[in-house]
Amino acid sequence: MASGQSCPGCGSSNLVDDALYSQSQLVCADCGSVVSEGLLTTTRSEEVQGTDVRYYESTAVVKQPCRNQIHGLKRVRALCRILRFSQVIEQTAESLFRRAYEHPSFLNAHRPKKELLGGSCVLLSSRMHNWPIAMGTICSLLQVSDQDMGAVYLELVRILNVEPITTSISDLLESHCSQYQLSPPGVPEVFAESTTKLIERATALVELASDTWLVTGRHPVPILVAAVYLAWLSLNPCRARLKMQLGKFCKIAKVAMPLMAAVRLKEIKEVLCKIGKEIPWLRGADVEPRTVPTFTKDILQHRGLLMRKALHSFESELSQADCELNPNPFSEGDLSLPGDTCAADEGGEDGIRSGKSRPPATPRASVQTREETQEGQERTALLRDGVLEEGTATFDSNTQKSPTSDCHWAQRHLFVPPCTKNPRKRRADEAVLAVTGDEEISDSEIEEYLRTPQEMEDIREMQKKLMSVSDTCLLSGVNLF
C-alpha cells in the first residue's frame, strides 16, 4: 500500500502496486481507477527490467549429448538386443553409460576406449540383475581383447563405486549351451542332441571339475566348451561320436573353439580316469581317456562314493610306497625293541590274572655310558649356540629321512590344482661377479697381450713399407687420405 496518497475519484487511500508487464502502476483497490503510471526509477535497486543478463542465460536450453555419446548409446542398445536382454537391463546399461561418460577418465579418452565402455556397461548391468553372461561373449561381439575389456570394466566398477554380483560358472552354462546348434535340421541325426540333456550332463561335469580344482582361477569359456563336448560324447558314446575331435565338433555346432579348450578337456579326462578305476565291475582295470566317455554316466551318478574310494586307494598306495622306501619299523623317538612288545603281549594275561604288572624292559638304545652322554650334551650346546664345526654330523647314521617326504606336496595328493603339478620354472638370477680391479693377473692372461719376436719383426717391416709409400706420395704430390 502506498502511503501519503489518495484516490482522486473516491478519496480512498487503499492504493496498491500493480505491475503490468514492464510498467508499474498505482491502482485504487476500492474503485479500480489508475492513480499513477509510468513512474521513472531513480535508484539502482528499483531497476528491475534493465539489469544485465548473460547471453547463455537468455538462450539457455537443455544440454544435448555429443555425437560420440549418442553413438555409444546406440551401441549399448544394439548389444542388449543382440543378447536378448529385458527392457530393465537395457535401461540400466544406458544409465550406467551416461553416468560413466561424464567422468573425466572416459570423457577425455580415445574412441576405442569409449566403445569398450559400452560393452563394460552392458556386462555390469547384466551382473547387477543376476543375468549370467561371460565377458568373452561381449568381447567376441565387439571384436576386442579380453585384457582391454577387463581393464575398462574394473575401472568402471571403481569409478561408479558399485558392487556387481559374482556369477558362478554353473550359471553361465545354460546361456552357453544355447549357442550350440545341434538340432536335427542342421546336423545329422547321429550328432543331434537335446539342449536340456546337454545342459544337465555338462552341469554335472562342471561340478566335478570344480570339486577337483580345475575351475578355480580359470577362464570359464574353455572349461564350458570342454564340458559340453564331453557331455555330448557321453550321452551317446557311439563310434561316430567318439571319432570326432573337439575342433570338428565346434565347427559342426557353429561355436568358436577357445585356445585352451583342448587342455581343459585333457584335464577333465584325467580326473574321470582316476575316478573311473574305482568302478566295481571294471575290477581295477585302467580307464583310458579315449574310452572314458563310455563310463562318464556311471562316474557322475556315483561321484561321491567313487571319489572317496579313489582317495582311499591313493593313500593306501602312498603308505605302501613309504613302507617300501623306509623298511625300518621303528619310528623317530621310538626306542623300544620288538621283543619288548611281544613280551608285553605274552605277559598281558598273566599280569591281569595275578594283578601284577611287569616292569617294562630297558631299551638298549637308552643305555649310554657317561662319556656318550657328556658328548651328546656338548653337541647339543654347540647346536644351540650355532657354532657347530663344519663337517660334523647333526644326526645319527641310523636316522634316515623318508625319500617320499622330500617330494613336492602335490605328489602326495590325488586332486590338486594343475598349476602345482607342473609349476613354472623360475628364472635363476645370475650371480653378479664382484670385480674390484685389484685382482691378480695370471701369467697366461699376460702372455695373451705379449707379441712374439716374429710378430714384432713383421710389424717393423710393415711400418717401413708404409713410410716408404708415404714418402713417395709426398714427392709426387698425391694425398693418401
From TrEMBL:
It comes from Albula goreensis. One of its GO terms (cellular component) is nucleus. Gene3D superfamilies: 2.20.25.10, Cyclin-like (1.10.472.10). GO terms for molecular function: TBP-class protein binding; zinc ion binding. General activator of RNA polymerase III transcription. Factor exclusively required for RNA polymerase III transcription of genes with promoter elements upstream of the initiation sites. Contributes to the regulation of gene expression; functions as activator in the absence of oxidative stress. Down-regulates expression of target genes in response to oxidative stress. Overexpression protects cells against apoptosis in response to oxidative stress. Residues 369-382 have a biased composition (Basic and acidic residues). This is Transcription factor IIIB 50 kDa subunit. PANTHER family: TRANSCRIPTION FACTOR IIIB 50 KDA SUBUNIT, TRANSCRIPTION INITIATION FACTOR IIB-RELATED.
